[in-house]
Amino acid sequence: MLQTPESRFVSVDGVRLHYHEIDGPDERPPVIFTHGGGPGSNAWSNFRLSAEAFSARYRCYFLDFPQFGKSDMVPVEGPVFSWHARKLLGYMDALGIPQAHLVNQSFGGCVAIRFAAEHPERVATLQVIASQPVERGISQPLPLFSKHAATLMSDYFMADSGPSAEKMAALIRRYELHDDNRLDDENLRQRYEASINPEFLKLLENPGAFGQWENLLPVFARVVAPTQIFWGLHDWFGGVDVPMLMLNQFADARLHVMGRAAHHVQTECPDEFNAVALAFLGGY
Q: Does an H or E element contain 256, and which?
């Protein structure tokens, strides 16, 4: 398994973005990985088990959005996914990346969907994992928006003396994994250390700092990039009707459901995820 690459930074609209880069063949568009929105999430911790397999074929970038990882902890203004999509555009421009394959976990997938709808010429392919870019499912409400999940962030950051490694382990096992044994010590360490950034804790004092929720259903038909959707059958945050909605309305999408996984399929089933994702990329 590859060690964590050195940190790199680039400024976009006055916001410093943190990323890791792994050299790979340059004859194809590179792969940009983006992360989920849970406490301590960052691109490397979300996709460290995919780095070696992907970098054998592609140059790889692991990007932390603002408010995550080692990127600047700045307030989001306006619709949240559109705001982050503008930073993704600026990031690609700053690094001279005309087009990329986007591989995205949960929150990052919502940003990538917004980006793909606005800038189709910049997206070679799109892969989203467990993303919920809608306010409700077809057949059932989304637990993400229920009273049972409404305090997920505040429970971790505010309750019982604040963040701890034990609370992080419990959160990952409850919300992100189907098999509790798939939580490894290194992932836990990275997630916990990222979650205790004092600058992020300051953001929590301002509820408006995280932008406005954005329902992306109206832009689904504008997503024309070839798309691979991954879903874990046991995903706590929503049923399979959510990816089916995307499958039905994106211009060119397919769906891969994993029966032994929950929200982080690339962590629970890395060999299967890497094989399917790379086979999909190989067609483009």
A: strand 253-258
